[in-house]
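Example 3.2
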Amino acid sequence: MLKVYAATWCPHCVKTVEFLKKNQIEFEYVDIEKAPADEVKKVIEVNGGHDWVVPTLEYQGRWRKGKFFNAEGLKKDLAEMGVI
């Protein structure tokens, strides 16, 4: 299942979650501020190793770095990851 590492206060996270729900894409929401340390470490690594960036997505070992919300870009990335 698609994992969405996000924060409740992040507008790009909110829009990403809304997009996924609207398009009936199942996902697991992981609050980055409450996530286990090993998962946070991986999100930091995926995003260049300096700090975590949200929303970061993971699906079957494929990662999408944290980005500003863009519906077309998200749709393209989800297709490349094999989610849709």
